[in-house]
Specification:
2 domains, Arc Repressor Mutant, subunit A, 6 helices, HTH-GbsR_regulator, mainly alpha, WH_DNA-bd_sf, about 160 residues, WH-like_DNA-bd_sf, transcription regulation, about 70% helix, transcription
């Protein structure tokens, strides 16, 4: 980190620390680092060259990470105004969008699990376990929807204040 200011070093440490948390939670390591760097950037957007310099990784590593982040809807690619370079931009409300998609996944899992519970037989241990798992996902989905509604209310109140 030579040549960096104290604040830049603090930001770099934060980026690596948050990226490690995302990786621990199951996100690909390079995607975690790129996402954390974009989150910590002033504009929520960086070019490939800026990411490569900041994270000390190759353009190929950035390309793979951005491809993953784009596929999961956390980042989009835009043309850098006045240049032929792309820049990578965080989606507004990225956490809301991520949890909303997760909600759709829970709905699909719940349906498959309910079908599985029927196939396994509700009176069997496997069927009962599967049915309880489906019930858990249904519960989680309702709780997440209520939480996201409260989050929107919180943001609206904060904006009005």
């Amino acid at each position: 980190m030579s040549g960096m200011t104290s604040n830049e070093e603090d930001v770099a440490r934060f980026v690596e620390r948050f990226a490690a948390e995302l990786t621990q939670a199951g996100m690909q390591r390079m995607a975690s680092r790129v996402f954390a760097a974009l989150l910590a950037s002033e504009a929520g957007a960086l070019t490939s060259a800026e990411l490569a310099e900041q994270l000390q990784i190759s353009p190929a590593a950035i390309s793979g990470a951005v491809r993953y982040l784009t596929q999961v809807g956390m980042v989009s690619r835009e043309r850098d105004p006045g240049t032929r370079r792309d820049r990578y931009v965080l989606h507004n409300g990225v956490w809301y969008e991520t949890f909303t998609r997760r909600d759709q996944i829970l709905t699909r899992w719940e349906k498959v699990l309910r079908d599985g519970a029927e196939i396994l037989g509700p009176d069997t241990p496997a069927g009962a376990r599967t049915a309880e798992t489906a019930e858990f996902f249904e519960f989680l989905q309702k709780e997440m929807l209520a939480t996201m509604d409260r989050w929107r209310e919180h943001l609206a109140a904060k904006t009005r204040a």
